[in-house]
Amino acid sequence: MEVISKRFFLYLSYNKALDRMAKRWGSKFGANKIIGGQTFSQAIPLITQLNQEGFQVTVDHLGEFVDSVDDAREHVRECIESIKAIAYHQLDTEMSVKLTSLGLDISRDLVLEHMELILSKAKEYGITVTLDMEDSSRCPAILDIYKTLRQKYENVGTVIQSYLYRSDQDVDDLKQFSPYLRLVKGAYKESGKVAFPEKQKVDENLKHLIKKQLLNGHYTAVASHDEAMIDYTIGLVKEHNIPNDRFEFQMLYGMRNQLQSDLVKKGYTVRIYLPYGEDWYGYFMRRLAERPANIAFALKGIFSK
Ligand code: FAD
């Protein structure tokens, strides 16, 4: 049953007509429980509050699969304005971006030009920008662009998904770039040709990648709500005397709030991934696919005023 609902919501996440409709309806369906607002300004009080509670943040201006240059440029403008606002309001937040929202599907040169604009502005204020990982067809291009940018910028990171067979090799190939990597299980609908179909293998591979990246000595962000992954990381850093400033935990805003707070109280760095913007539909559907229990707050959103 869980597998069926996962496939169903991932299928819906690609539906363009529903995406357009969702934009018109605003953040109904309970999306406001997991996004920071429709604009960056609306998200500022929440980021301030999260910082006061001891959390670091990464903001993501929602949007993906842009196919017009104007839309991609608009997205760049929004990212740059947000970077300026982060600096002005002295917020403790990084930024995450999806390269498909910056023109990845249009041309490599365009997305590189856009990332140069974003990274050079972010560098001025000491802000790190992480390239989110998208579906497997885009993975080679995203990693290639990461490597190109990393040669010029220190303030860029990217993401590796443990469900992909290729990820072990990718971590080896990235080693020479001393990468800041966010390690995740993976959120897209993938075939057995490229990704482990069994959850147990995905979990085992995430542990394997966490160990490899940590023991390589590179900064490791373990992005998971799964206590087994968190406990594994804590055991590993204790065993190898890895200091707390070499790794962090990341979780999505609105997910496992108690666990987030408990980790901060224990002295670990916890970064909250906070999306904002009008393009919440694809993000929201992937969250429903991951955890059918999220449907409860989606239903509340529909029936509440
Ligand atoms: P799951 O395997 O989904 O869950 C494991 C267990 O954790 C569950 O059985 C349950 O016990 C517990 N659990 C999970 N969620 C909850 C909850 N809400 N409440 C209570 N218990 C819960 N994916 C990408 O493909 N690309 C990205 O760039 C990317 N960036 C991400 C950034 C962050 C900060 C995070 C947290 C995730 C990101 N993801 C990304 C999504 C990721 O790939 C997974 O799809 C998602 O995190 C679900 O996997 P999980 O490791 O949290 O645990």
From TrEMBL:
Pfam family name, one: Pro_dh
Occurrences of domain Proline dehydrogenase (ranges): 47-296
Cofactor(s), by name: FAD
Reaction(s) this enzyme catalyzes, per UniProt: L-proline + a quinone = (S)-1-pyrroline-5-carboxylate + a quinol + H(+)
Enzyme Commission identifier(s): 1.5.5.2
Keyword set includes Oxidoreductase: yes
Keywords: FAD, Flavoprotein, Nucleotide-binding, Oxidoreductase, Proline metabolism
Pathway it works in: Amino-acid degradation; L-proline degradation into L-glutamate; L-glutamate from L-proline: step 1/2
Name of the protein in its database record: proline dehydrogenase
Organism of origin: Rossellomorea oryzaecorticis
